[in-house]
Amino acid sequence: MKLTHGLALTAMLAGAAAFAQTSSSSPSTSSPPPGAMSAHHEMSAHASAGAATMSPTGLLSMLHQVNQDEIHLGKLAQTKAKNDKVKDYAKMMVDDHGALDKKVSKFATDNKLTLAATAVPADIHSEMKSSGEEVEHRLSSATSATFDRDYMEAMSKGHGKVLANLDAALPGLKEKKDDKTYDFVKTARDKVEDHKKSADDILRDLRGEAATGGSGMHNDTVVPSENRQSVGSGAPGATTGSTGSPSSTPSSAPPPSGGR
After folding, report:
1. For residues 256 and 239, what is the distance between their CA atoms, to the nearest angstrom?
2. Which of 60, 63, 108, 121 has its CA 20 to 30 A from that of 99?
3. Which CATH number describes the domain made up of 59-211?
C-alpha cells in the first residue's frame, strides 16, 4: 500500500510540473491586456485600403502632395484667421511642410525615385483630392471664428488621416528591410503626429470659447483692452453687451448699511 501511495503521489507531482512547464512555455498564446492595442487599432481602422502596400515612391509622392496642400491652406489661414493661435499654427504649417517638402524632394532625387500622383494608390489619391476640394470650398466662404474652427477641424482630421496611412505603411517598409526609407518616413510621421496634437489642443480651446460665448476663460491670450468690449468677438475678456471693462461693475454693489 505504501508503494502504491508513493507512486500515485509521484505521478501527481510529475503531472503538476508538466502542466506548469506547458503553461510557462507558451506565453504567446495569451491575449494582450484589454485596451493595450486599442489606440493602434483605432488609428489603423482609419487608414485607406492601399496604405499598407504603398511603395517608397508612393509614400514620398503622398507626402509631397500633403505638403503642398498644407502649405496652400496655411497661407490661406494666415490671411483669414482671427485667432492668434490659429494664425501661429497656420504659419507653422507653411514653415514645417515647406521644410519637409524640400527633404522629400532631396530624398527622392538621392535615391532615384520619381514623385508622381500616379504612384499614390488610387483610393488614397482620390480621397485626398475630394477632401482637399471640399475643405478649400468650405474655407473660402467661411469668415472670422467660423473660419478658425473649420480650419482647425480640417487640420485635425487631415493630419489624423495621413498619420493612419503612414502607420499602416511603415510595417511594410520594415518587412522589406528598407531601413533608409523607413527612417525617413518615420521622422515625417512623428512630425505629422505633433501637428495633429497641436491642432486638437487649439480646437478644444476654440470650442470652449464657443461654448462659453467668448467669455474669456483662456488666460494665456493677451488681448488689447480696446477689443475686450466687442460683442460676440470670442476674444478673451469679452462680455456680451458690455460697453466698458468687464471687471468694472461697482454699481451692482449694495449701499453701505451704516446709514440705517
Report:
1. 28
2. 121
3. 1.20.1260.10
Give the C-alpha separation, 21 to 26, whole Å: 9
- Is pLDDT at 206 greater than 50 in this prediction? yes
The domain locations on the chain are 59-211
Model's pTM, two decimal places?
0.65
At 209 the pLDDT is 77
In the chain, what is the greatest distance between 2 CA atoms, to the nearest angstrom?
A: 108
